[in-house]
């Protein structure tokens, strides 16, 4: 059975440049081995990256030994749900792509909180001005 997104639909890819996901497949699929729950597809901001570094989760520094290029603002990355919630509580939550966020994130973060930080683009753009 495939994981669904927080909206109940098919889980969209989160990012391929750099390639994200616990399984490095571009999606926030959690699976049984991901005890950290890398479920939230977040768009990196300077504030979020600085906060993560301050709490011991440096996402900006390249780590070639782990094939990790380091993140910059604008990158999309599957982040640990508890880390995202920690940033939310500190007032620096990164924007969230709901269609690419695993339903497993709801084990930690309420949907209304994720929706409040959503940057999803609707499939039908005709209603936008």
Structure overview:
This protein is α+β, with helices and mostly antiparallel strands and about 130 residues long. Helix content is about 20%, strand content about 5%. The chain contains three helices and two strands. A two-stranded antiparallel sheet has the order 1-2. The longest helix has 9 residues, at about 45-55. The protein is globular, with a radius of gyration of 14 Å. The protein starts with about 40 loop residues before the first strand and ends in a 13-residue tail after the last helix. The model has no long low-confidence stretch (mean pLDDT about 90).
Topology:
Elements: E1 40-43, H1 46-54, E2 76-79, H2 81-89, H3 111-116
Antiparallel strand pairs: 1-2
């Amino acid at each position: 059975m495939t994981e669904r997104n927080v909206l109940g639909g098919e889980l969209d890819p989160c990012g391929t440049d750099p390639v994200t996901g616990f399984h490095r497949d571009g999606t926030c699929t959690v699976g049984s081995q991901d005890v950290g729950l890398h479920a939230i597809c977040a768009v990196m901001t300077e504030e979020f990256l600085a906060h993560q570094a301050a709490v011991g989760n440096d996402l900006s520094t390249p780590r070639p030994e782990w094939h990790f290029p380091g993140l910059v603002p604008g990158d999309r990355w599957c982040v640990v749900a508890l880390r995202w919630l920690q940033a939310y509580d500190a007032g620096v939550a990164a924007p969230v792509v709901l269609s690419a966020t695993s339903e497993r994130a709801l084990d930690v973060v309420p949907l209304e909180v994720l929706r409040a930080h959503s940057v999803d683009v609707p499939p039908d753009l005709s209603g936008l001005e």
